[in-house]
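R.M. (postdoc): so does anyone remember the format we settled on? I'll just put the structure tokens first.
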């Protein structure tokens, strides 16, 4: 799984400060990524996610859920999108992550956003 994260501590400006053309170029790049992954048979699924101000946190609490709606001012990092891919190796997944990290941002410059690579488990670890 590849997870694209936004961090307030990075040099990447929030997308709501980008021009419409910069947003369009970024989204077109993501469509290209999805098409390439589909063509190679590596794409299992993936989505872009709404911003934290549109999120809801739910916790169990005394028989009724405790719901907190966004925005969350303490949020400094958040997941902006993910891909579930099936690759032949960790190296291949790393190559894909590096390519996605260089998605265009303001002025067309590569964002170099952090992309977290994790294996999707098919069961509990063997030592359990």
């Amino acid at each position: 799984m590849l997870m694209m994260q936004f961090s307030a501590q990075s040099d990447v400006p929030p997308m709501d400060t980008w021009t419409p053309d910069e947003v369009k170029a970024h989204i077109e790049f993501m469509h290209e990524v999805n098409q390439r992954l589909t063509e190679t048979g590596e794409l299992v699924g993936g989505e872009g996610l709404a911003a934290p101000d549109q999120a809801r946190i739910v916790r169990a609490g005394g028989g009724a859920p405790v719901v907190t709606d966004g925005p969350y001012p303490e949020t400094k990092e958040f997941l902006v999108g993910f891909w579930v891919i099936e690759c032949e190796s960790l190296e291949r997944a790393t190559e894909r992550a590096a390519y996605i990290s260089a998605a265009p941002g303001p002025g067309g410059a590569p964002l170099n956003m952090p992309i977290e690579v994790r294996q999707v488990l098919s069961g509990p670890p063997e030592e359990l």
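R.M.: ...and that's the designed sequence above, right after the tokens. Also worth knowing: The first strand starts at residue 2 and ends at 7. The chain has a mean pLDDT of 89.
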